[in-house]
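Ticket reopened. Same input as before:
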Amino acid sequence: MIGVLICQIVLSIALASVFLIRPALTHAASWKILAFLGLCVLPALCIVGGMNTHVQRSEQTQFCISCHVMIPYGQSLYVDDPSHIPAQHFQNHRVPADMACYSCHADYTIYGPLKDKLQGLKRIYMQYLSTPPDPAAIRIAGGFKNAQCLHCHLGARDFDGNAVHAALLESLKSEQTSCLTSGCHDTAHDVANLNHLKLWRPAQ
Amino acid sequence: MKIREIGTGRLLRISSFLVILGLLLEIVSLLWFHPLSFVLFAFLAASLIGLGILLYLVSLVFVAAPQAGNTPIRPPVAGR
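Engineering reply: fixed in the latest deploy. New output:
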C-alpha cells in the first residue's frame, strides 16, 4: 500500500518538476491539463493517501509502544496471568495483536477517531516538549469507559449468559457501574509491579 | 504588489517548488516509523502541498483571467 502511494508521489514530483523547470509549457492546452494533474489533482490525492496511511499506522500496537513511556504498557500485554485483562485479551487474540491498544482504547463514537488523534497529539507534545509522566502515574482522563468493553462484548454469548452481567446490564450501559473499578475486572496494566510479574514468552 | 505583476511563470515555479518539497517530506514521513512522522506529515508536508495547490489555483484564477480594462467593447450593430 505504501509502495503504491510512494509511486504516486514520485509521479507527482516528476510532473511538478517539469513545471518548476519550464513553466512556459503551460501555454499549450494539453500541458495546462497536465499542470492541473501534476500541481492539483495528484498532490491532493497524495495528501489523502498519506493521511489514510498515517491514521492506519497510528492504530498499530508497535506505533503506540514506540513512545518511551508506553514501553511498560506494551510489556504488560505479556503478563502470564489471566486475571490481567489486557494481557488476557492480547494473548488469546480477543483483540487483533497488531492493533491491541487501539481496539480497547479507541473512542467508538462518531467523532471518536478525531478525538483520539487530538489526544495523540497532546501525548506527543508531552513526550517531546513537556515533561513525560511516570508510566505508572498515567491515567485515562475521565476513566476507562464501559462502552469500549461493550462495543465487542455486548451480545456475545459468554457475556450475555453471565448472570452478573445480565443483572447489571443497564447499570453498565449507563456507566453507573464500571467494568474495571467496581471490583470485577480490576487488574489492567499493572506497570508499577511489572518487574515482579512473570511474563509469557510466545513460541516463535 | 498585485498577483498579476508576479506573473504566471513565477507563481507556477513557487507552486511547483512547494508541492515538490511537501511531497519529499511526505516520503520521509512514510518511511520513518515514529510518532513524530505523523506530525511531520500533518503540520509540514500536507501544509506545504496544500499551499502549493492553493498558489496554483490562485495563479489560474487571478493571472489567467482577462483584464477587464483591456476587453474591447463593441458598439451595438444598428438594425439588429
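Residues 3-65 of chain B form one domain. Chain B is about 70% helix and 0% strand. Please confirm and we'll close it.
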